[in-house]
Specification:
Distance between the termini: 30 Å
Number of domains: 1
Strand content: over 45%
Number of helices: 4
Largest sheet: 22 strands, antiparallel, barrel
Radius of gyration: 23 Å
CATH topology: Maltoporin, Chain A
Length: about 500
Amino acid sequence: MPLSLHFHALAICGALIAPSAYAGDWRGTTGLQLSETYTDNIGRQSAGQKRGDFATEVSPYLSYAGRGARTSGSLDARLQNWLHSDSQTSNRTGLQLSAIGSVEAYEDHLFIDSSLSNDRQQISQFRAADANYGGTSNSTEVTRFSLSPYLRWRLGSATDAGLRYRYEKVQSEASFATGQTESLSLDLRNGSAFGRLGWAFNATHNDTERQSAEAASTNSYNGTLTYAVTPTLVTSLTGGQEFTDFEGGDRQHYWNWGGGLQWQPDERTTISAQTSKRFFGRGFNYQFSHRFQRSAIEWSYSRDLNVVSSAGDLNSPATQSRAKQALIAEMAALASSIPDPSARLIVALEHLQAQGISAYDLMQLDYLSGQSSIDKNMRLAWVMYGVRNSLTLSIFRSERQAISQTRIVQLSDDLSTHDHVKNRGWDVSWTHNLSALTTAGLHYGYGDISGETTTGQLTSSHTSTVGLNLNTKLAPFTTGGVAYNHTRSKGSAEYRENAVTVQLNHQF
């Protein structure tokens, strides 16, 4: 992996944060994490090939986050080093990195967003997933970088205008996942041009390039009429054109139309629904969120185009890690007090950092792909807070269908060997505060993935994990913990693993 991309992208993210580093609320920590893990199946092999191993981690890290007058951002970097007692398992050194930055470059008009992440990521869900201490060959290092300047201004007295450019780059040791996307979009909006009747216009151009397939592009032009039935209920009708060469390489022209509504009866509840006729069929996006006094629930169901080199929305993957579930819960809990999504994300990340959850844990997608696809995702997240207890439940279901099979060359990802990839599962986590210094936790997760190969053969894998953990504060700047995890998998990946980890974390 070329370091030039890391340094160049990190310099941009740093430049976005630097102007306001001396104003506002900024906090940073440095530290060292030490851990010792014993696993009875380091390679996650079948019963006859199991072998045990002690894995030692020595990882210095840096965390920095905050908000200034015109700047917000976070930086999490960890130089992760794993040493193995098993001579058959290679030692590993890698950089885990996540940086998010946003700056208001010119007051009320010019803004710049940027993000950078680097970590190892699972290649295929039909093979045994690599643990964080390694052991299998089913992972690869992936770097994602995005830069997005945009303008906002007003035309006349009531028309809002926006122009956004976005560049996204994905670099991976797995060449099929390497690619980049450039997009340019123009938005015009007047919500009360004729009393309750408003209008909007959007024009978007998107170019995608990747090593594993020919370049593809789309252009779309859409107009929208909105009508405010009540101040809290707004309906809409949309129509336009779309030009794309995603299917077969020939540029196609499509008409699209649709409608939707958004209802926000109070500051704690939001319901929205959009559906439209697109070049790939019917697209839709349904969302519901509600915050109770001591709990929050969020549900979404969508079908849309997923461009392969997209850096990804934190909420878009159908499969969510426990860290992502915690972020969803924090975002839902802060929705009413912090309406702006970017500002809310920064505060949520700060809360997770205080709980020992790093931002780079949130940036991983479910698995790598070398193709654009049509994704259908359903997700339900429910978090309940108590004085000493919290409970998080996540249920997910997804389906992916590649739309560029005819132009793929030398691919080895899941979507190139299967017509459809379906994923479903659930995860529940319970945390109990034994005292002001000690926390215990229990979690259980289940995932099922299936797909029909191009030859008609069904492939499936079923994985379940149960875990216990205990964390305590040993000194003002030192915490320690112990965790046990049991993982069992059937289907295309048959294995069982028991792992015990003892961890020490010291902040300087």
